[in-house]
Amino acid sequence: MINLTPSAAEQIIHASTELDDPQELPCLRLAAKVEDGEIVYGMGFDEERESDVVHHVAGVTLLISPRSQELLKGATLDFVEFQPGEFKFIFVNPNEAPPTVGGCASRSSGCGSCGSNSGGNGSGGGGCG
């Protein structure tokens, strides 16, 4: 099961109202894959596929492909302010090894621009499958 913080859920719902047809809350696809020994994340609004695992969390319908399910198990998607006016989605994932050199002690990775102030519209189809 994946979790959403209240701020992530609020931002996802807000971003969905900016789509061309905001009458129905779209599904948000979350994806993860291992690349060069690290988990890489993707997210975007998408339509449900036959093999998807569907989670309803905090008023948001999440779609996860079977390939991403194990990597996202127990993860939390959050929406945080890194610096004044710079907001990003991050994944806090217990399946991710802590950094071995440099960086912060958090096991978080930035991802996506769905509704953030970075200029993206978040309507892409994910990117990790």
Please tag this protein with its features.
8 strands; mainly beta; 14% helix; four-stranded mixed sheet; 2 helices; 129 residues; disordered C terminus
Please specify the SSE layout and strand pairing.
Elements: E1 3-4, H1 6-16, E2 27-35, E3 38-46, E4 53-57, E5 60-64, H2 66-72, E6 76-83, E7 86-92, E8 108-111
Parallel strand pairs: 1-6, 2-5
Antiparallel strand pairs: 2-3, 4-5, 6-7, 7-8
Q: What is the terminal-to-terminal distance?
A: 18 Å
Q: Can you count the helices?
A: 2
Radius of gyration from CA coordinates: 14 Å
* Helix proportion range: 10-25%
Main β-sheet, in a few words?
4 strands, mixed
Beta-strand content bin: 35-45%
- The total of beta strands comes to 8
Write structural notes for this entry.
The protein is mainly beta. The protein is 14% helix and 38% strand. It is built from two helices and eight strands. It has helices at residues 6-16, 66-72; strands at 3-4, 27-35, 38-46, 53-57, 60-64, 76-83, 86-92, 108-111. The strands form two sheets. A four-stranded mixed sheet has the order 1-6-7-8. A four-stranded mixed sheet has the order 3-2-5-4. The longest helix is centred in the N-terminal third of the chain and has 11 residues, at 6-16. The radius of gyration is 14 Å and the shape is globular. It starts with a strand and ends in an 18-residue tail after the last strand. The model is unreliable at 101-129 (pLDDT under 50).
Entry summary:
This protein is mainly beta. It contains 2 helices and 8 strands. The longest helix is centred in the N-terminal third of the chain and has 11 residues.
